[in-house]
Each structure stands twice: as C-alpha cells, then as structure tokens.
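Section: Multi-chain targets

For targets with more than one molecule, the full set of components is provided together so that the structure can be written out for the assembly as a whole rather than chain by chain. Components appear in the order listed by the source. The example entry contains four components.
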Amino acid sequence: MLSDRKEKILAAVVEQYIKSGEPVGSKSLLESLPMKLSSATVRNEMAELSSMGYLSQPHTSAGRIPSHSGYRYYIDNLMGTRELDEQSRKKIESAIGSNTDPDKLLSTAGEVLAELTNCATLSTTPAGETTLIKRIEMVPVGTRTAMLVLLTSTGILKSRICRSEFELTVPLLESFYNITSSQLVGKPLCDVNIATMQTLAASVGADAFAMLPFLASIADLAKDASQADILLEGQTNLLNYRELEENAYELMEFLRKGEPLGSLISSSKSDVNVLIGEENKFRQLQNSSLILAKYSVGGHESGTIGVIGPTRLDYAKLIPSVRYLTDLVGRLLTKAIDEE
Amino acid sequence: MLSDRKEKILAAVVEQYIKSGEPVGSKSLLESLPMKLSSATVRNEMAELSSMGYLSQPHTSAGRIPSHSGYRYYIDNLMGTRELDEQSRKKIESAIGSNTDPDKLLSTAGEVLAELTNCATLSTTPAGETTLIKRIEMVPVGTRTAMLVLLTSTGILKSRICRSEFELTVPLLESFYNITSSQLVGKPLCDVNIATMQTLAASVGADAFAMLPFLASIADLAKDASQADILLEGQTNLLNYRELEENAYELMEFLRKGEPLGSLISSSKSDVNVLIGEENKFRQLQNSSLILAKYSVGGHESGTIGVIGPTRLDYAKLIPSVRYLTDLVGRLLTKAIDEE
DNA sequence: GTTAGCACTCTAAAGCCTTGAGTGCTAACT
DNA sequence: AGTTAGCACTCAAGGCTTTAGAGTGCTAAC
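Its structure, encoded as tokens over all components, is:
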C-alpha cells in the first residue's frame, strides 16, 4: 500500500514516539532511519503521511504523532512478530508457577502482566455455561446449618454456609444426596436455576420446605461458578501516564464498574485483539488502547486476558507478552483438568 | 483550655474549611459565627490561635487553615457526638442486609462506607489466632485428588483442591478422618503448622507419605483462615481531592501493598481512632487522615474498619458512620456465631 | 476590650515578550 | 523527476511584568 520509504518512516515515527512520548520532528528522525536522507525529504514524506491520515500534529509547528490509523498500519504491517524475550518469559513462569486453582492462577496472571507492562490488566476466570457439575457436598455444621460445596469439571470450587429453619435430619440429608447425585451431578451449570430447584424440592414431598433453601443455595453456587469474574490489577499504574492524567478518575471508575467490559471481552476474536484509542466504542476508553486475547481450556475459548494503557503502548513487546501468557494459562488449566 | 470565644472561632474555621477547601478569612467567617463581632476582633483571635499552633497560613496574606492540632482540638473538644443521620443508616443497613459470610460482609461494609464517605476504606476480615477449628472435611474428587474444607468457629470457610502422588484409598481416608477429628478439630488455628503436621503424619506409619500433602494443605488452610485479609475499597475516590493529587500514585501504591497497614491497624485502640496528617508514622500517609475502629465478635476485638481520605474530612459525620458500621458488623457476626 | 481605618503583603490571573523547535514552500541541484 | 539547501513563518512553552483582590497586622479612636 505505502511505498517502502514511507513505511520505514512511519515505523520510525511510531517507535520513536512510543519511546519518548514527544512529537517527532523530521530532524530527530534522521538518526533512527536506516537510509540517508535530508530532513527536507523526510518532511515531504511526513506531510504526505499526514494527509493520508497516518500521522497527525498537535499543532502546526510541532512534530508528528501517529494517528490511530498510523498505529493500526504499524501493527498490522510493519511490526513483525518478535518473540518474547527470555527475561520476561522467566518472570511470567516463575510468578505463575504450576498453580492449578483457576481463580488464583488468573489473578496471578493479571498481577505479573501488570508488573511487566506497567499498565492495568484484566483477566477473567474461565467461564462455562456449559461446564458440568462434578460434585455436590452438604456437610452439617450445626443443628440447622450446613456447609454446601460445589465442584465443577473445570476445577472451580465454590462453597457457602446455609442456614435452615428446620432441623437437619438424617433422612433429609439422604434425600438431598439422592436428589443431587441423580438430578444435578453431571448436568451443565446453566441447567441449574431457581425454577428447576423448586420443582426438585417439590418432588421430595413433606420435606420440601426444609430442602428448598439448600437447593436454592446450590443454584446460587452454580450461578457463581458459571459466571466469569473480571479481575483487575495494576490500575494505579495508569496514574503514571501524563496523557491519561486528565481522565484518570473516569477511566478507573469505568474499569472498576466493569459491566461494560463484559461485552467488550466477549466480542473479541480469537487471536490477539488490539483496540486503539477511538476504535473503542466506549468514550471512557478512547484515550486508551486495549490488547485482549482469549485463552482456551480443553479446546474451548474460556476466558480473556488483556492490557489497558495509553495509546502509546509498546505493542511490539506487549502483544507477544499477552499471547505468551494466554497460551501458558490455557495450557496449565487444560493440564489441570486432564490430570484427574 | 481555650476561651469560649476562641473555641467558637476555631470550630467555625474547621467547619468552614472542611466545607470549602479554601483558606478561611476573618470576614467570611463572621457569617458563620454565632455572636456579633467585627472582623478585626476575629483577626486578633485568629492571630492568637495561629501562634498557639491551632491554625496556620499557607502564606502571609491568605486566610487560615486548621493545623493538625487544630483538627485534633476540634475533634476532642468541640465536635460533640452527632448521631448518624437516618438516611446514611438506612443505606448502610440495606447494603449489608443480614449477610453472615464474614468475607462478603466485610467487603460490602467497605464498599458502602466508601460510597457514603467518598473516600477509600479498608476493612479486615475477623482475625483469630485463637479461633478454633470447627470442622475438617476431605472429599475425594478423583483417584488422586481431594477437596479439603476447613471451617472455623467464627464461620470462616476455606477450601482447596489437593493432589497427591498416591492413590486415595479408603483406609487413607479413614485415617485422615481419625487424625483430624481427634487431633485437630477443636484446637486453635495457631496450633496448626507444618511442623505439627509432620509429626502427625509420621504417626500413621506406612501411609505417612500419602498423608502429608493433605495435612500440609490443612495447615495452609488454617494459616489462611487465621490471617485477616485487608480489603480496600473506593481507592479511586481519592483522585477527587486536589490536596492529594500530587501524591495520589504514591498513596494508592502504599495502600495497595498493604503490609504496613497491618501494623497500623493492630496498633489502634478500641474506640474510634483518628490519625490526622502528620500524626501518621508513614510518610505516604502524612497528607491524609485515617479513621479506624475495631469491631468485636463475641466479646473479642476481631477486626478493623477504617476510612482514608484527605485531612480535610467531615469528621463529625464520618466518625459516627464508622462507629455505627463497626457496631453493626460486630453484632451481625456475633449473632451468626451464636445462632448455631 | 472592641472596632474602624489604612498601609502592606502576597498569590493568582492576565498579558506580553522571547526562544526555539519544527514546518511548508521555493528554487537550485543531480 | 526526485532530492536538498535555504528561508520565512508558526506556535507552544517559559519567563517576566502588571494588575486585582483577598486578607493581614497594626494603630488610634471609641
């Protein structure tokens, strides 16, 4: 699309701007160009790149900064795919260890990525509407109180204490065991809801009233387990970027609330996904860039890991980082499931 | 200590400054004073309050702002103890509900307090070195994998999945049950550590190797359950205070790291505790004020709830809020324990 | 003891100037 | 035709000065 020389110049502008954060002038660009040119020639080329929409100027007499399409062209055509450097890889691996608890694993993943990138990160725990219930346990801990435990086929463990109005009798426990093991274990999480629980409770006859709160709790746990948590880390890192300072509060509140993030996450495609500045549909994110990637557990896309920072991100380093991390997380979680 | 008139003037300065955030001049103060005076007289009094150390001036020709001792005097002698207004009380109660899961309860408490005060809040889950183990369960979920569950007398529930090198046999499960129910249940959490577990494991003879990882996990869970988590909420609120802007990053990182907060929390006395600006021993907090209070579960001080904000806090409102919330949390958690 | 009056202080905001990096254009050069 | 030197022009950023106004401390009268 662009001439070879224009591409080289665009790449140099992007890379220099990412490093310095200052608009890049024609003169200072000469040093980082592979060929010998005068500043005048570079100026001409830059003027053309500007009119093509790849570069922009904060004001007439300033240097150029990459526009949103400039970054886009750079990422899609010029950047190449660097391998992640040894050091970062080591750091990630040693932080993650061989953790197999999904919640913990994803939060550590977020932490290490935040530290590595100096950005905010998000990570979601493996979702699974289609995940199966592996086990349900009810352990009495008082005359009217029991501990309920739910374990899924993806290794997610949820538990809760539940109180009842009625005394826990042995027959009650037995019929709870019968119902759950015959009707619930092995079923997908999404099949379990308050309505099905009511019909199940009704089926035990006289004990229905005593049974219902426990079954309802199970439905709660199932809902909990099927919903992906969105974990945020390193939000404070965002305070270090001058270009975000103005909207720091707004941005961080947007992230904290998290709801709209859900839709964002689910809409992303399967490989690494980059959204630059205005490409984001949410106003609060339009000064920022997102790098999102999905990880797969057992062949199914299950969750997302991502980085949030200013548009001036070191994409050439961060994209491999995110890709590497999602691969690793996917592999570990898949292994954890296979092992049992 | 101070003349009646000086007290009235000091109180007015503090209150007006808390509202406006601007240094308070003698003239604008007249309106909020209960008695009729000229600005000159007020000026004389303010000059004296300054030389006594209760007020200070950003520069010679500016109004006065309360010094750290000014706030202190106000809080200790002038503020009075307002009741918490109906509206806030309602808000707190409806947010908290009748939640009985300690972790959840404390995090909601932090959230609602943050919303109410527009500050950052911290809350700790009930600690308990002396808490007793109420129940231990081991549920096999695979040939070599089991789910371990630990429940404490204070209602804290911790669970984890544990893998072993060896197959899970019925005798192994039985001897695990025997050991835990005879040696661990009923004991305080602090008695359970890796060393005691090793001796326990050794006592089962041939199965020691298979047993150890599970017992070690129990020790882990016990440690987890005995340590109070420090929960932070509403950190982004701090970005709205101009006087904190400069150190926002430093302050938020300090809070995030959290370690030093531990010592701070444990050193506080039993009623509501206020630390104003320089009274804090940590540099990062010296532009901020803390309001901390402990809640008691079953007669023992178990955890802390607190507010972190600029020195210019509405103490007269926040102190009752924190007191009310700690009382409520203490009551709910105590009730939860008594009920079973 | 209180107050009116006044000279004084000092910041914040506004305006002005200077500097310098960077531009676009033109005309000469290869 | 493509490249380059040269030059006039632009504009933000920083420094300096001015102005306005809020607030003070002090003195002398009440």
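The domain at 86-126+228-339 of chain A is CATH 3.30.450.40 (Beta-Lactamase).
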